[in-house]
Design goal:
The chain contains 9 helices and 9 strands. It is α/β, with parallel strands linked by helices and about 280 residues long.
């Protein structure tokens, strides 16, 4: 089994109630070598009022907690420090966002940072209003363009999170019957530029098993995109469950190793002090 989960959340993320200790104990129970905490930091989250969540927390308290836990569990598991930054491409805020995230990376001793696109057009595709007045294909293309904009503009991250995240939330009102109508090859023009940008900047692509948890039938991103990344010369691949509960960490990792090898991957990547380390699958 893959021995590191490099995307998981705790109660520092507004959408999780998991205690950090619970995530650690579950990882130890599973025989894991290590984990990296990557709680949500989404400055200026546009849906905070209706969601009842701001996705912003006290970074100092977070790192103090993780330091204590790393010391307490040092003889049982390798604990690394990370965050998941919510990247935004809206022109009126992106410069401020870059400055805010830059301030965090300068101040705190990160091992690893995920850069994810959760929002665009000042909303979240989780909400159906994002999809009103557009087809599913149009909504996905706009989301993919935002992902490309963000990995081009920001340098504060190490791995690009859950590339086709928005596919989880395409409503039936768009006419799609579900993921059977999702053909990632239709977006190769944008996706190839996205992947080439990651490769050029030395950023990793994330393999996120939450897609399987959500019943999509594939992880994020789709196999078509994973294979295209290799074809373009991509080498850095991080693996995470996006687990918000102990029962979700390392989700489907027992099958991920053989699946990734079947696609042509030979190793995956973990990070320490923002530097990649390669582990054979």
């Amino acid at each position: 089994m893959i021995q590191y989960d490099f995307h998981l959340h705790t109660h520092f993320s507004d959408d999780s109630e998991a205690a950090p200790e619970a995530q650690i104990e579950e990882a130890i129970r599973r025989g894991a070598t290590g984990i990296c905490f990557t709680d949500h930091m989404d400055y200026m989250y546009p849906c905070a009022e209706r969601a009842g969540m701001s996705f912003v927390f006290d970074a100092g308290q977070y790192f103090d907690t993780l330091r204590d836990l790393r010391e307490r569990y040092s003889d049982r598991i390798d604990i690394r420090f990370g965050m998941e930054f919510g990247l935004r491409n809206e022109k009126e805020i992106k410069d401020s966002m870059k400055e805010l995230y830059g301030g965090l990376t300068e101040k705190y001793p990160f091992d690893f940072i995920i850069g994810s696109t959760h929002c665009l057009e000042n909303t979240d595709p989780y909400y159906e209003d994002y999809w009103v007045g557009r087809t599913a294909g149009e909504g996905m293309a706009l989301y993919f363009q935002a992902c490309l904009d963000n990995v081009s503009f920001y340098d504060c991250f190490d791995s690009a999170g859950h590339y086709d995240y928005a596919i989880r939330y395409v409503p039936a009102s768009t006419g799609w019957r579900g993921t059977e109508d999702y053909h990632p090859g239709d977006f190769d023009g944008i996706t190839d530029e996205y992947l080439k940008t990651l490769i050029r900047k030395g950023k990793a692509l994330e393999y996120n098993t939450a897609g399987l948890k959500y019943g999509l039938g594939f992880a994020h991103p789709h196999d078509h995109i994973l294979k295209r990344y290799l074809e373009l010369g991509g080498e850095l691949l991080t693996i995470g469950s996006d687990g918000h509960k102990p029962e979700h960490i390392f989700f489907e990792f027992e099958n991920a190793c053989e699946h990734l090898k079947s696609l042509g991957y030979r190793y995956y990547t973990v990070y320490r002090e923002r530097k990649p380390e390669f582990i054979v699958l």
